[in-house]
């Protein structure tokens, strides 16, 4: 059985308007809708880099005592924390690469292809 949620601790943390620091949270595994629906969002259409903000606001289910994780919360994270969550998103949603390795037709070097993730 695979894990559908993972707990995390942000390196720096989210500082809310009351001055409370929130570092501990939970991220769930993404669904197809989590990756498809944000593509319709006008903010993503205008700026594709905004996709990770929408994705994370959908899959981060808890961050400290914050009741609802919105794109505004994700936007307010320090870049260190955003990068941390991007890596975690990619790890949580990684496809296992159990297939046979590919072989370079020129040098015969065997390798596993790198997977590209929407999380960046």
Mean pLDDT: 88
Can you list the strand order of the major beta sheet?
1-2-3
| Rg | 17 Å
DSSP strand count? 5
Number of helices, where a helix is a run of at least 4 consecutive DSSP H or I residues:
5
Q: How many domains is the backbone divided into?
A: 1
Task: Label the structural class.
Answer: alpha+beta
Protein model, in words:
This protein is α+β, with helices and mostly antiparallel strands. The protein has one domain. The protein is 32% helix and 22% strand. It contains 5 helices and 5 strands; from the N terminus they run ββαααβααββ. The strands form 2 sheets. Strands 1-2-3 form a 3-stranded antiparallel β-sheet. A hairpin with a 6-residue loop joins strand 4 and strand 5 (110-111). It starts with a strand and ends in a 9-residue tail after the last strand. The relative contact order is 0.18.
